[in-house]
Amino acid sequence: MTTDERVRLRPIKPADLARMFEMQLDPESNRMAVTNPRTAEAFQMHWEKVLADPGITAWAILYGDLLVGSISCFPMDGRDHVGYWIDRAYWGMGIASQSLQLLLKGIPKRPLVAVAASSNMASFRVLQKCGFAVEKVRLSAATDRFPECEEVVHVLK
User: Fold this and answer.
1) Is the whole-model pTM more than 0.85?
2) Which of 31, 78, 117, 118 has a 20 to 30 Å separation from 148 between CA atoms?
3) What do you get for the CA distance between the two ends of the chain, in Å?
4) pLDDT digit string (tens) for 32-78?
């Protein structure tokens, strides 16, 4: 994989949240990720908790000087997970793969888990490029954030 030196990570700042909120409203992004966008209040509460938790690594993804997404490592259900969100205008440019590679270089913990809807082939490719392997497929129940769907659990050992 080639790297694009325009892709960088930096800690998320409170000033980033307005742009991140707008990105997570995109209908096509939510369709692909099988997510429901958060309300402004829920989004703000979620990110206040994330930014205050020293156990979570949350980074802004920059392409040049533009904020184009976010990526994080967080504990959930007794395991360390990774997740990312890329602005749809920047899909297909390798930014998610490069961002995940950068995150993995800075996070020595293993194993790491990533969960994606089984229909989200773009995330499958990103995770595969970065060394994740499928652990299992399961049906996830609906929540306020996620509709019921089949999801694939990927693990990096």
Assistant:
1) yes
2) 78
3) 20
4) 999 999 999 999 999 999 999 999 999 999 999 999 999 999 999 99
Amino acid at 24: Q
Q: Can you count the helices (H) and strands (E) in the chain?
A: 5, 7
Helical H segments across 53-148, by residue range: 95-106, 121-129
Q: Is 59 exposed, middle or buried (0-12, 13-18, 19+ CB in 10 A)?
A: buried
Q: What are the CA-CA distances from residue 7 to residues 24, 70, 82, 129 (Å)?
A: 20, 12, 18, 17
Cβ atoms of 53 and 137 within 8 Å: the answer is no
**Going by C-beta distance under 8 Å and a sequence separation of 6 or more, which residues neighbour residue 3?**
98, 101
Q: Assess if CATH 3.40.630.30 describes domain 7-156.
A: yes
For residue 47, give the DSSP letter: H
Domain ranges of the chain: 7-156
Q: Which residues pair with 84 in a beta bridge?
A: 71
Question: Exposed, middle or buried by CB within 10 Å (0-12, 13-18, 19+), for 35?
Answer: middle
